[in-house]
Amino acid sequence: MRTFAVQPTSGCQGSPERLTLVVIKTRYLLTPEITLAKNEKNRKPFPFLGMNSKTSSSSGLKREHEPVDILSSSQQPTSAFVIPKHYACHVRSVLISRGQIQDRVEKLAADIRSSYAHTTVHLICVLKGGSAFFHDLQSAFRALHNASGDAHVPFTFDFIRAKSYSGTESTGKVEISACDLSKLKGRDVLLVEDIIDTGTTMSLLLPLLKEEGLPKSIAVASLLEKRREDKDVKFVADFVGFSVPDEFVVGYCLDYNDAFRDLQHICCISPEGIERFKDGI
Ligand code: IMP
To answer: How many domains does the chain have?
Structure first.
């Protein structure tokens, strides 16, 4: 066991925290138990990707492409879509349909590919929620690459598991089961995540990967980003599909106690759904 002090990414607010990192082969347990170092001046700059426009990513750099805004008012009735019977009364509305997700993922793949032109990017799928996004993203990425006729290998990939939610609430702790992080050394790494909500997961995970893995660069692609107008934004991803209202969403591998991962569309859960799956499937 060893203790690993992690500094917060810029923009992290609130009471000081510190992390204990327990390393058992490739298993990590991060809990915010001890004090994070406060002195931001000592923080070394790290080469995230990060592009050129109005929003700063967590690296302090800018992202070029803004996400598509999904408004609360654009929730669509479940009667307009095919919802499987086992979830018929458990979702209130469809927020983003499967077709819209696919079209957006294709564009994200194109944006990401142009940022990593001539480079083999190392994709890390953040399980379990990121798995549908990861699958569709790498598939679109591969199709674009193969059609281009470029000679380099477009990407390699690995998996990492991060768990921070219980039911519909963030626990504030992140449990991580990681791949062999020494494989990241000198690589251009792109984390593929389902949703940035409080930003806790990414603001703890990235410094860990940086310290332990020593990648050449690290960036984050997240399908969704929640508009948490009442709270500080702890983390801004480099590539984001959709900005969604501050609601608990399910489907496309996003879950509520492991339910709804098999739902194709991204939906808002109903009170009946909350009640039905409060103890799991
Ligand atoms: P954060 O650490 O608060 O940014 O939350 C990130 C993680 O919490 C994601 O990887 C998801 O697993 C989970 N999460 C956050 N919001 C939602 C949601 O609305 N639906 C399902 N999972 C969520």
So the answer is: 1
Please, what is the Cα angle at 159 between 49 and 108, to 5 degrees?
A: 40
**Which ligand 1 atom sits closest to the C-alpha of 128?**
12
Which ligand 1 atom is the nearest neighbour of the CA of 198? 3
Average pLDDT for consecutive 10-residue bins of the chain (281 residues)?
33 36 48 34 39 43 86 95 97 98 98 94 97 98 96 96 84 83 95 94 91 95 90 85 96 97 98 97 94
Tell whether the torsion through CA atoms of 268, 270, 275 and 277 is positive or negative.
Answer: negative
Q: What's the pTM?
A: 0.83
CA angle 64/132/171 to nearest 5° reads 85
Q: Are 201 and 165 in contact (CB under 8 A)?
A: no
Q: How far is the CA of 54 from the centre of ligand 1 (A)?
A: 25
Residue 197 lies in domain: 48-157+184-276
What CATH number corresponds to the domain at position 77?
3.40.50.2020
Q: 136, 194, 197, 238: which one is catalytic? A: 197
Q: Has residue 25 been placed in a domain?
A: no
